[in-house]
Amino acid sequence: MKQRINFLMICIITIGLGLSSSGCKKFLNVQSISALSGNNFFKTPKDYEAYISGIYDQFRTYTMVNTMFFVASGDFRAGPYVSVSGRLDRDYLTNLPNNNMNAVIKDRVWASQLRGITDWTSFFHIIASCNIMLDNLQKSGNLLDEASRTQYTGEAVFMRNLCYFF
Q1: What was the pLDDT predicted at 130?
Q2: pLDDT tens per residue across span 76-105
Q3: Mean pLDDT, residues 111-119
Q4: Residue 126: CB partners within 8 Å, gap ≥ 6?
């Protein structure tokens, strides 16, 4: 009986070790048909063009869609506007040039449009995208000619610096 239990234990241990040591590399390295990972995206020059276009799209979305971030952080804050006395819906014209951000984001009329002016998360997403682009441009080897590599590097550095500026 004891021999049977020992034999059974050895079989269980052997099967357990066999199953745990065998890999499933084919299962883990499945090629996605609907999304690209960072490892298999930058394969053609068109991939670089698509990626930089995506960065521009992110910037446009974060600054002009459903928000007045770009306008409010540029011209309004430079101070060329004067408040219209007696107009309650124009307080932002005084608050933005005076850098009174608490009043801006609590403004009952413009709060939904101007609240994002204190949220920098979107810009850090763009900065991360630019850093990924720059990293992959260095790894591109002979995939891109020197003019394209210089162009994409310039565009990525510009967009990254523009996001740091805001």
Answers
A1: 95
A2: 666 666 666 666 666 666 777 777 777 777
A3: 68
A4: 55, 58, 59, 62, 159, 160, 163
Q: Using CA of residue 89, residue 95, residue 96, residue 101, what is the dihedral sign?
A: negative
CA–CA separation, 50 vs 28, rounded Å?
A: 27
Phi-psi region of 86 (alpha: psi -120 to 50; beta: other; left: phi over 0): left
